[in-house]
Amino acid sequence: MLGLGVKPVDWLSVGMGLQILAGLSGKLDYELDVVAGRFSKKSVTFDIIPTAAPTLGLELRPLKGLRIGATYRAPISTAVDLPVLLQVTGLADLDVTTRFVVQYNPHQLVWGLSYTFEEPNLLLSADLEWALWAEAPDPAVDSRIDAGGELLEGTGLAGALDTPAPADPEFCRLFLGALSMLTMTALSGSRGSTSKVAMPSSRSYAPLLP
Q1: Cα–Cα distance between 85 and 140 in angstroms, integer?
Q2: CB 95 within 8 A of CB 179
Q3: Which end of the chain has the lower number of beta carbons within 10 A, N or C?
Q4: Predicted TM-score (pTM) above 0.70
């Protein structure tokens, strides 16, 4: 929070400020080589995106002991955008896009006044606040799943497994489990019944899902 205040005359004070928050945008890109049993590529990138909103305030002192003030705060929020791309070499691609908004503060207006009595030594004050929460964004996590790749396209399941926003977390876990089974089945068929491939379970990907 940055701020600056001035007092041009004895009965007036004016101030302004700038509230700054940081959003997060990034990408997680993994490529799984099931034959080698390891990740052949791991790429994680993040960008910090600053956002700012002004604040204004003034105070009037028309009479001795009387203070009248008002402040305004502009709306501010930060967005988190974290797409995740998982490529299973030669078999399937899973693209999970997740977006949500946090730290939202609406338009705010605050009016206040106070009066100080010399005898007795007493201060009375009151204030009224108005906040436009009706324009608040949806707090839900917006997730989309796009499934593709040679195996799913060959079986005709690529489009059928796509999930519009918001994606159901339980469906995502079930889908990842099914993808693991399809991958093991394909490899077993190409190498014989004695082939063994260690695949992560669907719960291993739970932190990537809303």
Answers
A1: 22
A2: no
A3: N
A4: no
